[in-house]
Amino acid sequence: KQEVTQIPAALSVPEGENLVLNCSFTDSAIYNLQWFRQDPGKGLTSLLLIQSSQREQTSGRLNASLDKSSGRSTLYIAASQPGDSATYLCAVRVGTGRRALTFGSGTRLQVQP
Amino acid sequence: EPEVTQTPSHQVTQMGQEVILRCVPISNHLYFYWYRQILGQKVEFLVSFYNNEISEKSEIFDDQFSVERPDGSNFTLKIRSTKLEDSAMYFCATQGGQNYGYTFGSGTRLTVV
Q1: What is the pLDDT, as a whole number, of residue A99?
Q2: pLDDT, tens digit, 9 for 90 and up, residues A71-103
Q3: What is the b/e burial string over A1-10, where b = at least 16 CB atoms within 10 angstroms of the residue's CB?
């Protein structure tokens, strides 16, 4: 059974810092991996989608990498801003025959002005 | 940008009552999902729906749950006899195709009293 772990559980940084959020998964036979942002009491906003054949994806100040063989993904946020404060969730889709996403518990990020 | 719309945003119901949660998917999307998030816990997969039938479901999705797309636009989740432990945020999600990421709605907060 796929398990997804995110470290750290919470992170507080001053504005302007570059930071790395970590996601690990136990079954490396994934189809793709998606990073989401969740604001308190709100839905999930998709940030980046990485297919299993890709090593990284970039969108603005965000860069996500994927190392399938070691079961890891990182989300890099450059020049953090107070508006980046949210919970960041990592989710993996196991395989072509299955569509369900397995989520991690998230990293709660607070960027101090 | 196209959105997934969920109604109501918040529903309070008595234990044992039936509830129907509604979702309007993005119009050209083919795959539909329900997920839930109990307060303080991970987002969990409930069910996936494609071509007017369930394609995958989790252990959580037992006989008290059902899904349908009654009019070709709305996608609904029915909980037949609600229990206290059904209190959670329920998210609808849609996907345009096999290699696309998920788009989530903003959720319905269900409170069973």
Answers
A1: 82
A2: 999 999 999 999 999 999 999 998 767 789 999
A3: ebebebeeee
Cα of A17 to nearest chain B Cα, Å: 27
A38-82: pLDDT as tens digits:
998 888 999 999 999 999 999 999 999 999 999 999 999 999 999
| pLDDT in the model for residue B48 | 94
The alpha carbon of residue B81 is apart from the nearest alpha carbon of chain A, in Å, by: 25
- List the one residue out of A48, A85, A80, A87 whose CA is nearest residue A64: A48
Can you spell out the DSSP letters for B11-68?
EEE-TT--EEEEEE--TT--EEEEEEE-TTS-EEEEEEEETTEEEEE-TT--TTEEEE
Q: Quick one: tokens of B89?
A: 């945020």
B-chain CB neighbours of A45 within 8 Å are: 104
**CA B47/CA A16 separation, integer angstroms:** 40
Of B43, B55, B58, the CB nearest to A103: B43
- Chain B: closest CA distance from residue A79 (Å): 26
Q: Rounded CA gap, A49 and B101, in Å?
A: 6
**Residues B56, A98: C-beta atoms closer than 8 Å:** yes
